[in-house]
Amino acid sequence: MTQPTLEGVDHPSQDEEAEVEHGAHPTEAKYVRVALVLAVLTAVEVALSYTKFPEAATNAALLILAAIKFAMVAAYFMHLKFDNKLLRRLFVTGFVLAASVYVAYLLTLGVFLP
Amino acid sequence: MATKEKSLAHEEPVTPAPEHHHATNTGLSNEKLAMWAFLGSECLLFGALISTYFLYRGRSLEGPTPEEIYDIPYTSVSSFVLLMSSLTMVLALAAIQRGDYRRLRVWLLATALLGASFIAGQVYEFTSFIREGLTIKTNLFGSSFFVLTGFHGVHVTLGIVMLLSLWNLSLRGSLTQDRSEVVEIAGLYWHFVDVVWIVIFTVVYLIPT
Question: Taking Cα atoms as reference points, which of A32, A22, A85 lies closest to residue B15?
Fold first, then answer.
């Protein structure tokens, strides 16, 4: 049955459709490799939290490592790297909106002031 | 028979079941689209809770403070357990996509058990904090900590219920290869609670006040 098309709906482009049709998920071996990297990054995070480096540098490093782990889980385990771009846009929109709203909120309340 | 067991070598490339072209305006499954929209909105919920924790950190007038009661090695093990449950979840998805129902059930059960271990660890942590004098009413740290980690724990618990329901459906032969998207959608939710914990573990436990 052919579904009626609505005006203004963001239809996937030919590239996006091809991505859905041909975007094979990773192999099991790849999943295991990603999990090993995540485990190592977690160990590095914990080790970093015990070091005596300057606090600002340690905090920046911890946030970067958390961002890498977040991106790896989203890209490989949640398949955002392989799935249709529309799904990626949907999640990234929610995430960026949340991050912007709450960073603005915390800045307004002076949380990051010394 | 729909539940016929199949066994393939682990090294074989894992590809999803043939994509159905969904009869929707986007060409995507509405259920999957809805789950992603839901996860996008969950970013706002957890963003609010994490921001509130940030807002209150270091502002408690009386203890116990985070430095006095956190047990980082213990929480690191819990975090590792939850991280590994994401691996078992994708292995469950890979199993159903190639029609290996026995491995699907093994990995679903493993994921649920890892999730249950994480929750058991959280319950132990909460009770030890309460024994040391930190409750939700003690100070600003207690309020924001218990609300944030408690909400996350509720999400993990709901995920465990989903996983056990899928395991039960598979046992009854109702979860077949052509319905692998159901496992994928439950997996998206599970991985989301994992990524939220990645953020919580760093900003709440590892970054000093």
Answer: A22
**A98 CA to chain B: closest CA distance, Å?**
5
pLDDT in tens, A71-92: 999 999 999 988 888 888 888 8
Indicate whether B21 belongs to any domain: no
H helical segments located in chain B = 30-56, 66-69, 72-97, 101-131, 140-171, 180-200
Q: In whole angstroms, what is the distance from residue A80 CA to residue A71 CA? A: 9
ipTM of the complex: 0.85
- pLDDT for residue B204 is more than 70: yes
d(CA B107, CA B88): 5
B37 within some domain: yes
Span between the terminal Cα atoms of chain A, in Å: 63
User: What are the extents of the domains in chain A?
Assistant: 26-80, 84-114
Q: In this predicted structure, what is the pLDDT of residue B101? A: 95
Kindly report the CATH number assigned to the domain that includes residue B135: 1.20.120.80
Torsion-angle region of residue A8: left (phi > 0), alpha (psi -120 to 50) or beta? left
Could you give the C-alpha distances from A19 to B54, B106, B158, in angstroms and in order? Answer: 40, 31, 32
User: Chains A, B: CB contacts under 8 A, how many?
Assistant: 164
Q: Report CA torsion sign: B77, B80, B84, B86.
A: positive
Structural domain range at position B118: 30-53+72-206
CB contact under 8 A, B83 and A66: no
Show the low-confidence residues of chain A (pLDDT under 50): 1-22
Nearest to A86 by CA among B197, B132, B27: B27
Residue scoring higher pLDDT (B208 or B68): B68
Domains in chain B, number: 1
pTM reported for the whole predicted model: 0.84
Chain A residues near residue B14 by CB distance under 8 angstroms: 24-28
